[in-house]
Amino acid sequence: MNDKAIVTLTVGQKFSQQWKNFCYKNWKNYADKYKYDLITIDEPLDVSERAQNRSPAWQKCLILSSAKTRNYSQVVWIDADILINTEVAPCICSMIPEDRIGGVKADAYPSKEIYYRQLKLRYEIWSKQNVNYIDNLTPYLYYKNYGIETNINEIFQTGVFVASPKHHCHIFEKVYHEYEEKGASAWNYEMRPLSYEIIRSGLVEWLPPEFNLTVNTYFNTHYEFLINSPRNTNRYIRKVSKLLKLEDFAYERQCIQTAFKNSYFCHFAGSGFSKMKYILPTLND
Known about the structure:
Blueprint: E1 4-9, H1 13-22, H2 24-34, E2 37-41, H3 49-52, E3 74-78, E4 82-84, E5 101-105, H4 112-128, H5 139-144, E6 156-163, H6 165-178, H7 191-200, E7 204-206, E8 213-214, H8 215-222, H9 224-227, H10 230-233, H11 235-244, H12 252-261, E9 265-267, H13 280-283
Parallel strand pairs: 1-2, 1-3, 5-7, 8-9
Antiparallel strand pairs: 3-6, 4-9, 5-6
Helix pairs in contact: 6-7
């Protein structure tokens, strides 16, 4: 047994199999390289009615109190829809003291100013398309929309974090037991209250954005032509393309591979596992 572990949740046979097909070997290489144990939790840690009525994502708040993790000095949570650039990614725990919580600012890439400028443009497009969205144009609104009044001006992206069962279990359990899910995925499940409680604890150690670089953020910044293509903006074209199993936009493969090369942990949030197929050939070279 090593003194640190990487943990993820893969509930459901289909989801679990997809993670094994796309991610297991990649994660195992990183774990072996830096001497982590790799733990996959494929059954809910809480099976109560309340737990069943909200996203399994909330259960990441229980991992530090799980019998599987409580004896580790540090635990690295990684959402299952992430691939690791093992050639360049440093040891994430080496950057975080044991009594601190490590994570990435959700709006850090490529800079806070550019992030919100791109988000504003996205909202303008969605308004023209009559797409419903939650206005999160500032960190203040991000929390206020959920019902949290705060002057905190940062957002902790909870897809990747480093924490200690010994030091931080109570923070995560508080979020799990005291906050409720709002519903649709646009509310980000547990992320708003968990971000708030982690930051207000004063224990955050910020990591470089490469440790949780989301593909959608990278595309919004560098490849707006992909985001605005009819394939992505016209629901009829999108539906027909999916039914006919048409190939993706010609340049999408190269763009995703570039995003991966410029990240440590490449987060496919919103894309699931389907886009990972473009990375696998480079991992197997």
